[in-house]
């Protein structure tokens, strides 16, 4: 398939924190887009920029060459693709479906099989880089599925991200994203405990971030979320409920592979404590609130 803004019709489902910014880059580049979201108001900026509203996912897919989805949980992915009014009901022969939600590898493989039966191709293409990366078009995008379809949609992915790789067959993108989330879980506990220690030791936490964030301990989480923690800004970014979902997927996949991940289990337990205390819609940096209460 030859992709170009003049020729290629796009369907887009999911206009939350990530999706609205990512779809915006395509509209800005001139792609014609039909957009759907559970809450219509969140699609309004895209509609104002020239996208057309679709009442349900199947209406997004009707005449689309490429359909992108970035919703919340695997159950949402299943619903917008395979449920009543789902994309699969009206997908065009030869269309490429790109699910960018962080979802289960098993579901990615199920979608790939279901769309293949309709003459379409489904790629799993989860992203990393947060709300900032989405806004700035600087996401990492890890793709599983048919290599030819990946090459076809690469020009569109390049409008959303800078670090883009084909990782293997269907599900390989989601597996790669699980590697990402396992690493983030470890760094989040390190970021919070490091800043807790800085506060107890009477250090200027901002100055600590500046110096250690530029050295061997430097990572996205300390440099982007560290300052938000210091400012007691717990607004999302990336919501706790989604992170718990990701850690649950990673733990289930690890178990199925006979792998034990004790570090991930600990962080998942701490985040569940945070959600139980009412922090499920906070940003993931709110892990600090749980660790502040821990006592030896
Ligand atoms: P979000 O703000 O909750 O956006 C998800 C959007 O999908 C919402 O607007 C939601 O509608 C819509 N949606 C959910 N189910 C739907 C359905 N059945 N039909 C139609 N629309 C539906 O979440 P996000 O932060 O953008 O994250 C989206 C995905 O990317 C998640 O899987 C997350 O784990 C992943 N991710 C997030 C980040 C991050 O930093 N935020 C980074 C990397 C990956 P409503 O507006 O009605 O809620």
Word description of this protein:
With 296 residues, the chain is of the alpha/beta class. It has two domains: 9-169, NAD(P)-binding Rossmann-like Domain (Rossmann fold), CATH 3.40.50.720; 175-291, Orthogonal Bundle (N-(1-d-carboxylethyl)-l-norvaline Dehydrogenase, domain 2), CATH 1.10.1040.10. It is built from 13 helices and nine strands. It has helices at residues 17-28, 44-48, 57-61, 74-82, 105-116, 130-136, 147-160, 172-200, 205-212, 220-230, 240-256, 262-279, 287-291, and strands at residues 9-13, 32-36, 52-53, 66-69, 96-99, 121-124, 127-128, 139-144, 161-168. A six-stranded parallel sheet has the order 3-2-1-4-5-6. Strands 7-8-9 form a three-stranded mixed sheet. Helix 7 (147-160) links the parallel strand 8 and strand 9 (161-168). Helix 9 packs antiparallel against helix 10. The longest helix has 29 residues, at 172-200. The N and C termini lie far apart (60 Å). Bound molecules: NADP nicotinamide-adenine-dinucleotide phosphate (NAP). The site of NADP nicotinamide-adenine-dinucleotide phosphate has 27 residues, from helix 1, helix 4, strand 7, helix 6 and helix 11.
In brief:
By secondary structure, this protein is α/β, with parallel strands linked by helices. 51% of the residues lie in helices and 14% in strands.
Strand fraction: 5-15%
Number of contiguous helices: 13
CATH superfamily of the largest domain: NAD(P)-binding Rossmann-like Domain
Give the bound compounds. Answer: NADP nicotinamide-adenine-dinucleotide phosphate
Q: Based on helices, strands and strand pairing, what is the structural class?
A: alpha/beta
Provide the residue-averaged pLDDT: 97
